[in-house]
UniProtKB/TrEMBL annotation:
Keywords: Hydrolase. This is Metallo-dependent hydrolase. It comes from Gloeophyllum trabeum (strain ATCC 11539 / FP-39264 / Madison 617) (Brown rot fungus). The keyword Coiled coil does not apply. Pfam families: TatD_DNase. PANTHER family: CUT9-INTERACTING PROTEIN SCN1. Residues 335-378 are annotated as: Disordered. Signal peptide: none annotated.
Amino acid sequence: MTDLASDTYSQLDVLPGPAVLAHVVDVHCHPTDTAIQPESMDKLPIKICAMATRQSDQAKVADLATAYPSKVIPCFGHHPWFTHWISLDPTASKEQHYQSLFANSSQKHAETLQAMLPTIPDPIPLSSLVSTLRANLRAFPHAMLGEVGLDRSARVPLDPNTTPRVLSPFTIPIDHQMAVLTAQLEVAVELRRNVSLHDVKAHQATADLLKSMSEKFKENWWEISVDLHSCGVSPEMWKDIERVHPNVFLSLSTCINSRSPNHVALIKACAANRLLAESDIHDVNYCAPYTWDMIRTIANFKGWRIEEQWDYDDGSKEEEWGVVKRLEENWKAFQAGNHPSPLKSKKPEWVTGGNRKSRMRSAKDRNEWVSDDSELDS
């Protein structure tokens, strides 16, 4: 989740034709953070995964997906930045809840919290969040869990309703974030839904979480896919995650990842069949150009050609694929899930390339949504 980068739409390269863009998916964006004009959605040439982040935007994402089902994959969940609004103890008062999170021996901090209380919302019980999340995911059979995750660096605003935001000295305890995240992941496993996962300065905690989820849910964990969105881990850590977790993918964005040269090393280190592209943009008008910018970046550092037209047939060979075709196949595998357990084979099907079509058939068998590009091709 990010603000727009300093680049403007006019500074980005011209997009390819609609026949190519029909095969592009922005796997992580926040279009409901700003007002959306119908003409913007009508002109949107790609598919997008629209993230929810807090209580107030779950319905907005649902409404957008209902209005544009062929273009929007809805994602429901609570972002770590807003997890302090969620109470693990439904009997606690508002003041008791926030004091339990931000209690500090400093008199100044205590005074700051007291000044914040009138402006921050009453907490919602975690049980209520889980109930609403389950209902939303069931209402949209192709929906994902997102954006959820862990963030050690984000500070809580003094007043969430003012702009620009003035930050308080408080950060949300990682144990509290983990409790909220784990509850949401359990719903995802229960309903076999894929996940868009946020990780900022919590890389080891995230790696430990992935390990604990695989140990707890075993085969059920490999049924779903997890995308580490705008991932900033080191190439070495990514290779470890990639090796141990065949259901984890890596998506990158220009807005976030291009701030550091680490993204180049990540692209080079990542297996060809684990990469995805995203915009992480909050304005739907920018989703296509920013996603395309990252696609070009991936092509550059992977040495893949960039398609100028869509001329594939059923007999096309993988070594002939360009970047868009490769990322499209990765997205299909991400959606399909049903990854082979690394415990059953030293060389899992996913690591060695595998049979993509068999995984897609498995996804269809359990009524998961597989995208139909026919409308965008027209």
